[in-house]
Design brief:
Elements lengths: L1 H8 L15 H4 L2 H4 L5 H55 L1
Length: about 100
C-alpha cells in the first residue's frame, strides 16, 4: 500500500528513490489566483478586444447583407429587362 501512496503523491520515498520529488503544490500555484484584482486589467483588455472584434464582425456582416440585397435587386432588374427584350431578341434570331 505504501507504494501506491507514493505514486499518488508523486514524491520520492524510501521505497521509490528513482522517482524525483516534485515541487510542493504551494510553489506551483499561480500567484495571480491569490489576488483576483491583479487580473482585472487583463480581463478588461480582453473584453475590450472582444467587443471591438464583434463590432467589426457585425459591420462586415451588415455590408455583406447589403451587397446580397443589391445583387438580388440587380438580378430581378436583369430578369425584367430580359423578359421585356425577348420579343425583340426573338425577332433578330428568327430572321
Amino acid at each position: 500500500m505504501a507504494g501506491s501512496t507514493c505514486l499518488r503523491m508523486r514524491q520520492t520515498c524510501r521505497l521509490h528513490p528513482e522517482r524525483p520529488r516534485l515541487h510542493h503544490r504551494a510553489s506551483r500555484e499561480n500567484p495571480a489566483h491569490k489576488e483576483p484584482a491583479a487580473l482585472l486589467p487583463q480581463l478588461q483588455a480582453l473584453q475590450s478586444r472582444m467587443n471591438a472584434l464583434e463590432q467589426a464582425r457585425n459591420g462586415e456582416l451588415t455590408t455583406l447583407k447589403q451587397q446580397i440585397a443589391d445583387l438580388k435587386a440587380r438580378q430581378a432588374d436583369d430578369a425584367i429587362t430580359e423578359t421585356a427584350l425577348k420579343p425583340f431578341l426573338c425577332g433578330f434570331r428568327c430572321s
